[in-house]
Hints:
The chain is mostly helical. The chain has a domain at 29-64. It is built from 2 helices and no strands. The protein is elongated, with a radius of gyration of 23 Å. The protein starts with 11 loop residues before the first helix and ends in a 10-residue tail after the last helix.
Amino acid sequence: MRRAVEQPAEPVGERQALYAGFGDALGFAVELAVIPVLFALFGLWLDGRFGTRPILMIVFIVLAIIGLGTRAYYTYAAQMAQHEEGKPWNRRS
């Protein structure tokens, strides 16, 4: 009978952080896909009401993309500042 080679146990905290990272990435990806579509549909609905067919839809899509890009930039900057807090290269002399 063959015995399975035992792998070293992975710390639970690392696994939880990995899964949390996957969840955050999936949530952000869905957000990047869904928000512009919702804004486009809202703009299309407003275009139908006001008779300005593609104008408002395009404006709302551009606003959604600019907003998502801005949010992504500031979220990333805040996460990196938190991650690098207390590192030797960040200490003030």
